[in-house]
TrEMBL record:
<dbReference type="InterPro" id="IPR034242">
    <property type="entry name" value="MauL"/>
</dbReference>
<feature type="signal peptide">
    <location>
        <begin position="1"/>
        <end position="19"/>
    </location>
</feature>
<protein>
    <submittedName>
        <fullName>Methylamine utilization protein</fullName>
    </submittedName>
</protein>
<keyword id="KW-0732">Signal</keyword>
<dbReference type="InterPro" id="IPR008972">
    <property type="entry name" value="Cupredoxin"/>
</dbReference>
């Protein structure tokens, strides 16, 4: 009897109210797992990402760390310099243009990322330094692990758009876009990047 009542209650909920697990494996054109790709699952009518906690893009060992940082729209990202040399951080990206003039060790600057998109970073002093800030409106975004996999929880069921970003994707904006339907039981799929 209780199972029937629970089934009846769940069947009356709109599909978007049900939350499900989503697992996505991303493979390169060679079939190998693609690590550090960013997967964003955008659900029609789903929640929007909100900033929480702190977000940091360090300059350490003459490199940006992490190489790829995912932040929600509206997040303030700090750029601390942990190196014994000065850095000059900049971006010419459409989603956020900025220029943090030379600053030294243990000094830091902050930037608010107020538009979704990919923000490529560089250092005007050290040409080998580069990184990316991925600014997203969806809370369902993650970087693939070494096995090319992301696992998300509590994703609303219903129609969705999956976006995969990686500098190695040869498509406009380095983004692969695919439609999907997230069932009440979830979604498990593999996406292969074609050249």
């Amino acid at each position: 009897m209780y199972r029937f009542i629970a089934f009846l209650f769940l069947s009356m909920l709109p599909a978007a109210a049900l939350a499900a697990p989503v697992t996505i494996d991303v493979r390169g054109a060679n079939g190998q797992p693609l690590a550090d790709a960013v997967v964003m699952v955008e659900v029609a009518g789903g929640p929007r990402a909100v900033p929480h906690g702190s977000y940091t893009m360090e300059q350490k060992a003459i490199a940006f760390q992490p190489h790829v940082l995912i932040v929600p729209v509206g997040a303030a990202v700090s750029f601390p310099n942990r190196d014994p040399v000065r850095h000059h951080v900049y971006s010419f990206s459409k989603a956020k243009k900025f220029d943090l003039k030379l600053y030294g060790r243990e000094d830091q600057r902050s930037i608010v990322f107020d538009q979704p998109g990919v923000v490529a970073l560089g250092c005007n002093i050290h040409d080998s330094m580069n990184a990316f800030v991925i600014v997203t409106a969806t809370p369902f975004a993650a970087k693939t692990n070494g096995m090319g996999r992301i696992a998300l929880t509590d994703v609303p069921a219903g129609a969705a758009t999956i976006r995969v970003w990686s500098p190695g994707i040869r498509a406009p904006g380095n983004v692969l876009v695919q439609s999907a339907t997230i069932a009440a039981t979830g979604l498990s799929t593999t996406l292969t990047i074609r050249r």
